[in-house]
Amino acid sequence: MREGREQLFSDVRLARRLEMAEGRSGVDFVEARARLFPESGASWTEVAGAYVLFDTPNSPVTQTFGLGLFQIVTEPDLREIESFFQGCNAPVYHEVSPLADTELVAWLTKRGYQPFEFTSVMFRPITGTADQPGRQNERIGARLIRDDEQEVWARVAARGWSEFTEFADSISELMMINSKRSGALAFLAELDGRAIGAGMMSICDGVALMAGASTIPEARKQGAQRALLDGRLHHAASQGCDIAMICAQPGSASQRNAEREGFRIAYTRIKWRLPRSVRSASEHTP
């Protein structure tokens, strides 16, 4: 339990905590993939204080987290990371906070990287008593799943996400791995006792990372998302967390919903990719 609560500012200290929480969650996912599917080659390493994750070549988990936040990144560091991904036959992606070392963007540009995606990294303080479940549909509740409900959770989560994600073909597998990773806190939303929604949470150094919330199509707009958020906030408070974290596409409905629940933007993260033509050229550079 953290002693007291301090005011939170959108600074490097906060960014390090948030990026560490997401990076550790990714590590847990990669290790779960490697445990369940050893033939996948899933692995991770750490370079210049950043987590470098390989899940599968097309996985959203395959990228770096925290680059330039914990240590100054040099060109040899970038080469080492690129070599790791190229050895896995995977694209090279970095999600970079604007609070990272200012020289990092110059290095990325010099090496031919291109920005192509933005993410709102959002947070809100967890204050304990203020985070008790609020006004919601009384027929809907959210709870932490039991050990024997992982497959049920994965099926509900996959149904909720299947029509919205570019990873639709692999969503069931992704959700199943997510439910089995170390430290996974999976929640079900139930309408009159029937599972209609699913959400995930992981905890790292007092940060409760909330991700993967979805509702099955026929049960939307009845309060499942609110129930999942309240249930996870309540559990996070009981575990002594002082920050809740959500990532969303800028300007999306997910961002608006999070803002309605007291979340605010800490920073907008930029995702960079190394084009295949540049990767091919670098592979042949002595």
How is this structure best described in words?
A hairpin with a 2-residue loop joins strand 1 and strand 2. The protein is α+β, with helices and mostly antiparallel strands. The radius of gyration is 19 Å and the shape is globular. The chain is about 35% helix and about 25% strand. The chain has two domains: about 10-120 and about 270-285, no CATH class; about 125-240, Aminopeptidase, CATH 3.40.630. The longest helix is centred in the first third of the chain and has 25 residues, at about 10-35. It contains eight helices and eleven strands.
Q: What's the gist of this structure?
A:
With 286 residues, the protein is α+β, with helices and mostly antiparallel strands. It contains eight helices and eleven strands.
What structural keywords apply?
alpha+beta; 3-stranded antiparallel β-sheet; single chain; 8 helices; 27% strand; 11 strands; 2 domains; 286 residues; Aminopeptidase
Write the layout of secondary structure elements.
Elements: H1 12-36, E1 43-47, E2 50-54, E3 63-65, H2 75-87, E4 93-96, H3 103-110, E5 114-125, E6 140-144, H4 150-161, H5 171-180, E7 185-191, E8 194-204, E9 207-215, H6 224-238, E10 243-248, H7 253-260, E11 264-273, H8 276-283
Parallel strand pairs: 9-10
Antiparallel strand pairs: 1-2, 2-3, 4-11, 5-10, 5-11, 6-7, 7-8, 8-9
Helix pairs in contact: 4-5
